[in-house]
Amino acid sequence: MTTTKRRSRAPVAAGDATRSTLANKKRRDSRSKPVEGQALSGEVVAPPAPAAPPSIVPFGKYRGQPVEVLAQDRPYLDWLTAQDWFRTRYENIYTLVVNNFTEATETPEHNALQVLFLDFKFCVKFFKVLNPEATTPKSFYRNFEVKNGFDVWLQYEDRYSGPEVFVEIKPTVGDDYPAVLRQIRHNSTESIPPQLRRSLESTVSFLGSKGKTAVLFTERYTGRGATQKQFIETFADANIRVVFRHEVRA
């Protein structure tokens, strides 16, 4: 009768056994853990959808479409901008719509800022924010919705030679601020009399000219792509002042 000899295993130290167990568990976990795009069963798993960019509508019947498409539906746009939930939950899109696809005068926030200029003391303080070292004006001329597109026009002291201030009102400015900048630049052009034209260019911008100041007057900045400081500096490079409501207290 033939007997089979069994090999005896060498004793394993407690520490070695623990390390071996952890290594085996790690190998099992690595085999069973799915990677992006692959499930345990071998089926493809779609990666999570990225957040919609601020120019894409994330709700309603225009979900997934550009804001420009929504803006063409005027009845829906008018209804939407009157909804409180739209202003609070989708502030960036609300700002984009109001600043680019509707008349600013249609919003209560815009009107509330515009009527501030009816107050003489407020206008004086506004001037002092722009010109801290200047003498406090004793009188001024004022007009609303002037022909070149600005919301408020002010001329201090002298009707014909006093400093002029052209104010564009935007209650909220977000990541759409380049469009606001282009709008103010467009509004800041003036017609050149034919006898003074030296080229085919028929308009010239008064931005940066002495005695004329273009101002963006706003309640808040909500952009994420640029800091508030960078936002202000961008307008300053174009000779446009940014004044916040909290800076002017009548």
Helix/strand layout:
Elements: H1 14-32, H2 67-71, H3 74-81, H4 84-89, H5 91-101, H6 108-114, H7 120-130, E1 140-144, E2 152-156, E3 164-173, H8 177-187, E4 189-191, E5 203-205, E6 212-221, H9 228-237, E7 240-244
Parallel strand pairs: 3-6, 6-7
Antiparallel strand pairs: 1-2, 2-3, 4-5
3D structure, described in words:
With 250 residues, the chain is an alpha/beta fold. Among the domains are: 60-102, no CATH class; 108-193 and 203-247, Trna Endonuclease, Chain: A, domain 1. Helices cover 35% and strands 16% of the residues. The chain has nine helices and seven strands, in the order αααααααβββαβββαβ. The strands form two sheets. It has a five-stranded mixed beta sheet with strand order 1-2-3-6-7, with helices on both faces. It starts with 13 loop residues before the first helix and ends in a 6-residue tail after the last strand.
In round numbers, the mean pLDDT is: 75
Strand order of the largest sheet: 1-2-3-6-7
Kindly identify the CATH topology of the domain at 108-193 and 203-247: Trna Endonuclease, Chain: A, domain 1
Question: Percentage of helical residues?
Answer: 25-40%
How does the helix and strand content classify structurally? alpha/beta
* Strand segment count: 7
Number of helices: 9
Oligomer: single chain
Uncertain segments: 32-52
Kindly provide the name of the CATH class of the domain at 108-193 and 203-247.
Alpha Beta
Radius of gyration: 32 Å
Tell me what portion of residues adopts beta-strand conformation: 15-25%
Anisotropy-based shape = elongated
Sequence of secondary-structure elements: HHHHHHHEEEHEEEHE
